[in-house]
Design brief:
about 170 residues, globular, Four Helix Bundle (Hemerythrin (Met), subunit A)
């Protein structure tokens, strides 16, 4: 009579099966068409979350509460998603968190629109986007740094312009 294998003997086979399932899922996910409207909807939700975080809330102690770090992270992620949505509408599937790299992939007409909406020359717009390019990563992991700096006024203005551009496409 054959002896049943121990659980330890089955573990590598179960692991291999699970690994194969993960690989198939990853291949399947790569085949899924991304929906620019869904990306834009998510971007709008993160922008709304950023705006809500920036609302001053009066505490019972008389102090105001405003969670700045979550506001910046949400605004930066919203900006990234709006860029990716616009790029997808322009026929470009983009990855990554660096806003300047995403911005530079936009069509000339989109970059001109954004320059006009932010009242900047295209050169100044590119410089400002460069200054906020890694904000999502920098601020998401702010606890690992001594400090972080961001032009939050420009970040919000640029995000609002992207939102407006996305809605016109």
């Amino acid at each position: 009579m054959s002896q049943m294998p121990s659980n330890k003997a089955l573990l590598p086979d179960k692991f291999s099966a699970a690994l194969q399932i993960c690989r198939r899922a990853r291949r399947y996910m790569g085949e899924i068409q991304m929906d620019s409207q869904q990306i834009s909807n998510n971007a709008s939700s993160f922008f709304m979350a950023a705006e809500r975080c920036l609302e001053k809330r009066l505490l019972s102690t008389g102090e105001f509460h405003m969670p700045i770090v979550p506001a910046i992270v949400c605004a930066a992620f919203s900006t990234e998603l709006f860029l990716k949505s616009i790029l997808l509408k322009e026929g470009i599937a983009a990855k990554g968190h660096e806003l300047l790299k995403l911005h530079n992939k936009l069509s000339e007409s989109s970059r001109n629109y954004l320059a006009a909406e932010t009242s900047l020359t295209e050169h100044d717009l590119r410089q400002n986007v460069g200054s906020i390019s890694s904000t999502f990563v920098d601020w998401r992991y702010i606890y690992e740094k001594q400090y972080a700096k961001v032009n939050s006024e420009f970040l919000l203005k640029y995000c609002e312009a992207l939102k407006k551009l996305s809605s016109t496409m």
